[in-house]
Amino acid sequence: MAAVKGCIVPIHGSVNVDTSDTMRRLITEALRAVPPVVTIDLSGVPFIDTSGLATLLEASRIARQQGTRLVVEGLRAQPRELLHFSQIDRLLEITEPGRDGSQQTPR
């Protein structure tokens, strides 16, 4: 069985109102190709604010509309807590880095 081709979008640094446009642009570029899977790697993100959450929700909506599976991985403490407290973690597929599709446990 052939492996599913996807795209990994690494994000680095704090994501806030001043930087979320860069994150949005990177994710939009990845989604534009309509791959089967886009993985957003947030392991390099120590902090995310609500503008970053809005960007993730927008990406999730676009991915769902075009049939792309959107995966968020590598959450550090503050982003994980914010996603949990806002209950957005219920809307996104969140995994740990390095796991393939068969091992994923959405949170």
Describe the structure.
This protein is α/β, with parallel strands linked by helices and about 110 residues long. It has a 4-stranded parallel β-sheet with strand order 1-2-3-4, covered by helices on one side. Helix 2 links the parallel strand 2 and strand 3. The chain is globular, with a radius of gyration of 13 Å.
Give structural attributes.
107 residues, alpha/beta, Transcription Regulator spoIIAA, 4-stranded parallel β-sheet, 36% helix, globular
Secondary structure layout:
Blueprint: E1 6-12, H1 20-32, E2 37-44, H2 50-66, E3 69-73, H3 77-85, E4 93-95
Helix pairs in contact: 1-2
Radius of gyration of CA atoms, rounded to a whole number: 13 Å
Shape: globular
CATH superfamily: STAS domain
CATH architecture type: 2-Layer Sandwich
Largest sheet: 4 strands, parallel
Short description:
The chain is α/β, with parallel strands linked by helices and 107 residues long. It has helices at residues 20-32, 50-66, 77-85, and strands at residues 6-12, 37-44, 69-73, 93-95.
